[in-house]
Amino acid sequence: MTLCKGKLLFQYFLNNHINHARYISFTQSNLSRYAKDYIDPIVDKEELSKPLDEYDTRRHRPVKAARTEETIMGDQAVQKFINILMRDGKKDVARNVIDQTFANIKRKQLERYHRAQTQDEKEKIELDPIKIFHQAYENCKPVLYTRTKVHGGFKYKVPCPCEGNTQSFKSMKFLITAAEEKDKKIRMWKRLSLEIIEASRNEGVAIRKKQNLHRECQANRAYSHFRWSK
């Protein structure tokens, strides 16, 4: 009896609402508060110092307000690292972890600096945590990676060149994953700072992850021609 009632209600809904279906819009509304003619602000110091061309559209087009993290002293790679580290949309937590990570890197490097015996040893020690992060980030960038390709009903891991955003993402993901795999009793910012310092010297788990990925690409090089197959 309940099933019959359900069918009748469904039929009633179809008869009364099917004619109005053409008025239903499934297009996502634009939630931006800026019109399409607004452009993103320039926060790069070098870009700001360059003179604008006479016919440059930036002379007369309106500019969006800069975000909180978009400052002249900001770093795009660090902001991207924060976004990848973020969990459940808690960006403040991720930003706090990165701040503490850089502070711990600074402390560790200062300890090494004061323990150094000669001036030459001290000059070789980098004290800027941002530069250390960039060095680690560059060292972890893979040249190749594998993509799964189905061919003849079988799945193959096909080596592909790793460039652009994919290369940046994988490099940062190696650092974060390597830190997460360390002892869980240690705070995340401590684990991450140690991993970044090791990666800046071409050492550590993140570097081994990159090397393992390259070995996997080498082992599957026979399937590289599948890149061009449909």
From TrEMBL:
Q: Which Pfam families match?
A: Ribosomal_S7 (PF00177)
InterPro entries the record matches: Ribosomal_uS7 (IPR000235), Ribosomal_uS7_dom (IPR023798), Ribosomal_uS7_dom_sf (IPR036823)
Keyword terms, alphabetized: Ribonucleoprotein, Ribosomal protein
Instruction: Respond yes or no to whether keyword Chaperone is given for this record.
Output: no
The answer to keyword Aminoacyl-tRNA synthetase applying to this record is no
Mind telling me which GO cellular component terms the entry cites?
A: ribonucleoprotein complex; ribosome
Q: Name one GO biological process term.
A: translation
**Domain Small ribosomal subunit protein uS7: residue ranges:** 58-221
What family does the database annotate? Belongs to the universal ribosomal protein uS7 family.
Report the protein name in the record: RP-S7
